[in-house]
Amino acid sequence: NAGVMQNPRHLVRRRGQEARLRCSPMKGHSHVYWYRQLPEEGLKFMVYLQKENIIDESGMPKERFSAEFPKEGPSILRIQQVVRGDSAAYFCASSPASGDSYEQYFGPGTRLTVT
Amino acid sequence: AQSVAQPEDQVNVAEGNPLTVKCTYSVSGNPYLFWYVQYPNRGLQFLLKYITGDNLVKGSYGFEAEFNKSQTSFHLKKPSALVSDSALYFCAVRDSGNTDKLIFGTGTRLQVFP
Questions:
Q1: How far apart are CA B83 and CA A78, in angstroms?
Q2: How far is C-alpha B73 from the geometric centre of its chain's CA atoms?
Q3: B44–A91: do the CB atoms touch at under 8 Å?
Q4: Which residue from A35, A101, A105 is facing B46, i.e. has the nearest CB?
Q5: Model pLDDT for residues B28-61, shown as the tens digit of each residue
Q6: What's the gap in Å between the CA of A15 and the closest CA on chain B?
Q7: Chain B contact for A55 (CB, 8 A cutoff)
Q8: Contact flag B99-A91 (C-beta cutoff 8 Å)
């Protein structure tokens, strides 16, 4: 059973460009979480999605950031008009369901560098 | 608001000695606590969790953690450290709302010296 897959692993964008980060959850997992890790900091929650639904986007910046988890295909985190402050590692996690006993499994992350 | 604190930025320990990485929490209701480890340029790996039951939780790679409700702590421990345990360790608590999101501490870097 493959783990959580993220691509690309490294992404370089110039200021003003768009960044698209992809996450394929573990097989059988229908819950996806996105977290951001700034240099030398812990992970901060961004958004929680189930298939075709955004459940909690309380950690998403109000502008330029969006996320989706379509019925088919990976979850996408999209950052429009990137700025240098968007440079960070973005981690996706998945779980089979909601509930107290389910831990989240993390992907290897996408390291975004904005030049 | 729920939060997790890891008071030590770095812990240094000699190989073979016991190690402790500290974590305290603040939650409303029952705490659901987790430890994850991050190796350089890698994602987080799950180590162990406390949901309910025994206060001493055993996890992967010989790690264990002790839940202490009166001290609101969930310290990570290992009886005998290995050089390969050197990594970044994160304590996390599950949000008590409906979304199951994790709230992470700032991390503790563990350095095990040969």
A1: 39
A2: 10
A3: yes
A4: A105
A5: 888 899 999 998 878 899 999 998 888 999 999 9
A6: 24
A7: yes
A8: no
